[in-house]
Predict the structure of 1,4-beta-D-glucan glucohydrolase.
Amino acid sequence: MMRSLTGLALLLPILGGSTAAQDAPRSTSWRGDDWPVQTSPTPRDDAMEASLAGIVAGMTLEQKIGQMTQPDIRYVTPDEVRTHYIGSVLNGGGAWPGMRKDAALADWTALSDAYYRASMSTDMKVQVPVIWGTDAVHGHGNVAGATLFPHNIGLGAARDPGLVERIGRATAKQVRATGISWVFAPTLAVGENRRWGRTYESYSSDPAIVASYGAAMVRGLQGGLKGDGDVVATAKHYLGDGGTFQGVDQGENRASRKHMIQVQAAGYYPALDAGVQTVMATYNSWKDVAASKDYGKIHGNRELLTDVLKGRLGFDGFVVSDWNGIEQVPGCSKAHCPQAINAGIDMVMVPEDWKAFIANTVADVREGRIAMARIDDAVTRILRVKLRSGLFERNPAATAWAARPEALDDRALAREAVRKSVVLLKNGGALPLAPDKRVLVVGASADSLSNQTGGWSLTWQGTENGNADFRGGTTLLAALRKALGEANVTYSPDGSNVDVTRFDRVVAVIGETPYAEYHGDIRFPRPVAHSQLRPSDRAVIDAVAGKGVPVVTILYSGRPAYANDLINRSDAFVAAFLPGTEADGLADVLLKRGHDFTGRLSFAWPGSACSTGEAPGDIVQFPRGYGLSYGKAKRTVRLPEPAAPAACR
Ligand code: BGC
Ligand code: BGC
């Protein structure tokens, strides 16, 4: 199906610009009008269920609520984990042991060990190990020295679920090296509007790609669930995060029920089938405008969290809320939200105000706002995942990969992923680069691991990092110097004060600067034109183009960009997305070192500054599935350059 879609896309009159209405229909994996009926892939284990029931029956209310509470490591000590029976901790983006960005693996495992031992020395009848969760969304992003893979948007272009599964295995091992056993990935968003700041966390706007990748990532991360190289995975953010109105992060999804079921939710069915053990609720709300039905914030919606997810879809793991997500439910605060627990949230990510949360929730149960049966169900689910994943059997800080630096090193795999994920949009013969030629490299992104890795890299936003912070990473500039020879490469960040005509080729590396979540939103009515958003990138191209020397442009971006002006001023153009730490993979294809370009767009590429997705009427320059190879014709056509207006309408 996907294959024929790709073929079809190539026949479209893409160079003149087409509209999405002409685009090939979406391929979806579930075509039913209602939620599918699924069962857990893990058969019920009566002996385990009996022991779970025994443990829960022996717990006090405070112990149960403690199990449902997840503070951030910045705000909870090991001793507090012990005294408050804390069930889980997380390190949010940019949280490291001792708040040191360069924390060593031994620091990570020492902290993990301290939390674990604290959780195992409470006055509970049965000691319950704490589970630590982390955002390893493109490799273990919080850890200095970990190889970082391309963000999901690039992996989507690789069209290779097997690669994604191997990245999942590698990521699990990296995470295990820090003594952590739970990862908040994969993101199963189907990104529908490129204004959204999390577009790069989405594999594709094609639900079929999200569906096959989501399951592959779950298999890769979880493996057999109990092994030393396995971690618990999270399907997030349930439900509809990728389809909010105007791409507003944490905004309102206005999809019809059918669209939600067939498109936005497409990744969940196979991920649940693959045995994903946790699901994270999403910040957004859902209003089915066509049916005049308002589901409100998903964190407070019982129909979706309980009836659909735990009922029809057969999910028997636990649901975790997002970072302070409960406070957005009407009537709730960061530290109090019986509505969310009653709706089906089992564990509450309450990074800072966890003490008040515990007190408030204990009172909720005592005063009848939450039934004890709901609490018992939540705790049973949490303990079930802990039992299944082997946490009761061994200290996660003392497993095979713990504190082993080689576990962070997946350079060859990341290089392969980069090679497969970059998409050649234009080549009039400027590529491949030849090793004996003189190359002028321009653009600040050429020497920036920060722009190359994007958000969720060492820090939450991916900002405040220098190249040295990414131990062992390779910029494209460094990769080109290695590949072409130091003497053949000259670097000028802004392309000024250099005689371009002395060179055989110019390689311009431009791109967005890092962002995460709502920080990356481009709010309506702002046009989404790269040159307008980053005039310095256009200036660098203008400084080198039109001088008789072919210009090869590489664009780093977390979203498809309207860049026709930049493409027209370049002789070859590569959409490289956010490739991560290993730019050698880019050099491999730029030089055609035994590898051709095989990446194909996983999102349509816009042909105007106000076309924000693949909705009817949007102008598509390159449809999903587009991508050139060296083998293909080199004819280039001047693209239309509709000017970006001051504001979109
Ligand atoms: C994000 C989640 C993430 C969590 C923990 C939230 O703001 O939406 O994707 O897992 O923070 O860092
Ligand atoms: C955390 C992130 C989290 C974000 C949400 C940050 O302080 O480090 O992990 O996603 O807050 O607002």
